[in-house]
Amino acid sequence: MYTVSEITDYAFYNLPAYQIFIPETIRKIGKYSFASDRLVKLDLSKMTFDVIPDFCFHDTRSLRVLKLPQYIRTIGYKAFFKSQISHVIIPRTVEIICSKAFCKSSVLELDFSNTHIEIFNNSVFENCSLLKSITLPRDLLQINNGCFAYSAIRELSIPQTLQTIQEGAFEFMINLEKINYKIDKIREIPNKCFNGCSSLTSISLPNSIESIGNYSFASCKFEKIIFPKSLKIIGNCAFKSCSYLQEISFQGINIKKIGEECFCKSIILSKVVLSDTIEYIGSSAFKCTMVSDMIIPKSILYIGKKCFSNCRILQKIDFTSTKKLTKFEDKLFYNCNSLETIIFPENLYFVGQNVFSFTKITNIKLNLQEIDILAFADMDKVQTIDLESSSFKVLSSHCFFRCLNLNSLKIPKTIEKIQENCFKYCPISDISLRDNLIHISKYTFSYTNFEVLDFSNCSKIMKVPMFCFQGSIWLKTVILPPNLRVIKDFAFYECTNLEKIEFPRNLTSIGIGCFGNCVKLESIDMSNLNVSVLSQICLKIVQN
């Protein structure tokens, strides 16, 4: 009579048997050995083998209760993957659980309290959508990537021995309401650690924590969170979409960096107190929050683009003590509809795109070295802008575009170039143009409210480009640059109030439709000109 000591790989794979009797002589079982969708009864409690191999109970759909051998040390990779087993009794001898061991299984509860497991590997309990309760090993040191992600656990107690938590360990545990731990060895909350735990209402961060990773607590249900003094860095999107978070304070915290979108879309966050150690605040960090005012500490070196955009009740922000901040990045205060007051940093030298668009700011006075396109565009409430003491040389494209109430503008004395659409749809009626102006662009003065434009001091301008003054219906008089040589096509098209224009002696070319629909321009004196190129279309349109 033979003694059976081993069950090989796939031995009972998809076997149409409801019950299998296993002899006590078995010392080893193979991969997929019991992966059968019909198996209902199986008792391994008296076996002496010490490894549940990879895929052993993979996709078992009828087996509900299982007693493991009492000397098991290792549970293999995907051993219970997609298994419908609801109850598994874990022997105290278990030391290793491989990745995805219970992943997507139907187990209801697990107790590892008497084991000496030190590491829970990647995704061990991931997508255990019925797992309501688990007791962790008392000697647990490490929880790996995605270990409990998408599981149904409501409460979790972490042992004091824990030293490391890896990325996404508790991600999208949407039923998790409470997590208990008293640990002081963890330095980092990793990326996505509690991301999407939408029922988690509170958490006490260990005093040892120095960094909070990207998306660590995104979409959690916190109303308030207390940060440990040891905290130095908060990663990108760490508290994004925490829609119940009302206040945060970094007072007394040694934090250096708040990452991009850190509190973005935390839609009722109304109170923020920054510490005097913060140096970096990332892009969109406080976007779409309910903060009404903020004092920026003197330690700040950088604030990213869109940081405060769409903060619709932000009324005042104070940079008084900020000496090191030199740039306002793109859309920094974009669509802050209630923002009336900015106390600017003393050493601000750069303004990016759409920084102040759709705010309630009425007056601006700045000393800048550089501006980007659209720098002051869509400031629909601004009335005065004073940049006279600035030193930049280019008024960028769309710089004052649609400043619908702007009635006073002082530009730097250093301006050499004015780019396209710079003043488009601005109601300003007067501007000083100086002798260092070299270049104007197409549409530069189009659709503006200027009545008189005097270029008599601009001796370096040789060309008026296409559409430069198009649609400026209030324009009556233009004094052209003294050394002008070329007026391009449609330059003064539809300047319907233009009455007088004097041409400089050096003018040699006038383009197509240049004075088209200038209905009040009754005569043009070209008697002193030596014009080599004069478009007949230009003359006909004026005559008609």
From TrEMBL:
Pfam families: LRR_5
Protein name: Surface antigen BspA-like
Stored InterPro entries: LRR_5, LRR_dom_sf, Surface_bspA-like
